[in-house]
Amino acid sequence: MSKASKEFFSPASLPPPRGYSHIAKVQGGTTVYLAGQVSSDASGKLVGEGDFEAQVEQVFRNLKIAVEAAGGTMADIVKLNIYLVAEVDQASVPKLRAIRDRYVNAEKPPASTLVVVTRLAQPGWLVEIEAIAALEG
C-alpha cells in the first residue's frame, strides 16, 4: 500500500477558519471511517452526565481508542463531524476546541463540521463526534 500524504489548508478566498482547516487533501494510504463516538465508557455507562467538558473528554478518548485499534493515531484524523445538542450553550464551543486541540494537531487541525441537533440517540448525551482518518500504508 502507498504512504498517505496529508495536506491541510484554507484558501484565502474563503472565510477565515476558526479552529479548523477548510480542506484536508489525502493521497494514498488507507482511509478509515470512525463511527460517531459518545461519552460512554467501555461498559456502555454514560460518563459526565450533565458535564459538557467531561463528555467531550470521553468522546476524544473513545476516538483515540478507535483510531489506534485501526492502526492509526490521532494525527491521522483528517475530518471531524461534531454533533452538539441544542441545550449546550454556544459559549461552550471554545471549551470543546481546547479539549480537541489536546488530541489533534492544533497547528494543522482537521477539516471539521459542527452541527447543532435537537437531541442525540440517548438521553444525557451532549456531544457525538465521528471522524475520518488517513493512515500510512
From TrEMBL:
It comes from the Bacteria. Belongs to the RutC family. InterPro entries: RutC-like_sf (IPR035959), YjgF/YER057c/UK114 (IPR006175). It holds the Pfam family Ribonuc_L-PSP. This is Enamine deaminase RidA, house cleaning of reactive enamine intermediates, YjgF/YER057c/UK114 family. GO terms for cellular component: cytosol. One of its GO terms (molecular function) is deaminase activity. It comes from Bradyrhizobium lablabi.
